[in-house]
Design brief:
It is a single chain. The chain has about 220 residues and is an alpha/beta fold. It is about 55% helix and about 15% strand. The chain contains eleven helices and eight strands. The chain has an eight-stranded parallel beta barrel, surrounded by seven helices. Strand 5, helix 6 and strand 6 form a beta-alpha-beta unit. The protein is elongated. The mean pLDDT is about 95. Bound molecules: erythose-4-phosphate. The site of erythose-4-phosphate has 12 residues, from helix 7.
Length: about 220
């Protein structure tokens, strides 16, 4: 399972990219606003200069022709840009047209396996089930990830499942166990995946013992020939 970073913050992307574990980025209008807004194209171009992998940028038009036009424009920003399109009648029709032109689409706001199946049928490259938002309303969001993966495998559908709306490190483990192709994680979750208090105390103890051992070596009597 690959890891994408779920943010529009260039600082977070730069920090995560240095670790070498991020192979793509997902943004949406909320993340763009949270990161301070500005020109969306400029933000995406800055991200594309940092991460050499798929960068999702969301389209917001609400009618098919306008959405297709907007998606073509977003896709022309950079070869790595993937256009995020919410699933509904407008999104499906636009995606089926865009897929025929070779525009890569990340179909977003997926809340059921049937929505994922429809997205795969119209040629979306990625589908993004929103795990946390389903958990928030008392459903098990990870079931949608597992069902979509199973269906795509069984029918050899090439769409890749991005486990999205992840809220804690266990979600990432569960997404991997469910067979998600990708998990997109906020920076805070990436850091929470990395850290463990026993690792910290283990490092401290090794450093203290190394200093102690070094002191012992210096105190050893010299055996001159
Ligand atoms: C990523 O593709 C999604 O837009 C994002 O994970 C949504 O997360 P949220 O439910 O925390 O807003």
């Amino acid at each position: 399972m690959r890891l994408f970073l779920d943010t529009a913050s260039v600082d977070e992307i730069r920090a995560a990219a240095k670790l070498g574990v991020i192979s793509g980025v997902t943004t949406n209008p909320s993340l763009w606003a949270k990161a301070g807004g500005g020109n969306y194209r400029d933000v995406v171009m800055e991200i594309a200069a940092i991460v050499d992998g798929p960068i999702s940028a969301e389209a917001t038009s609400r009618e098919v022709d306008g959405l297709v036009e907007e998606a073509r424009r977003i896709a022309s920003w950079h070869p790595n840009v993937v256009v995020k399109i919410p699933i509904d009648e407008v999104g499906l029709e636009a995606t089926s047209r865009l897929a025929k032109e070779g525009v890569k689409v990340n179909m977003t706001l997926i809340f059921s396996a049937n929505q994922a199946l429809l997205a795969a049928h119209v040629g979306a490259t990625y589908v993004s089930p929103f795990v946390g938002r389903l958990d928030d309303v008392g459903q098990d969001g990870m079931i949608v990830v597992a069902e979509a993966v199973e269906i795509f495998d069984r029918y050899h559908l090439p769409a890749q499942v991005i486990a999205a709306s992840l809220r804690h490190p266990r979600h990432v483990t569960q997404a991997a166990q469910a067979g998600a192709h990708i998990a997109t994680v906020p920076y805070a979750i990436l850091m929470a995946m990395l850290r463990h208090p026993l690792t910290d105390t283990g490092i401290e103890r090794f450093l203290a013992d190394a200093a102690k051992a070094e002191g012992q070596r210096l105190l050893e009597p010299r055996h001159d020939p």
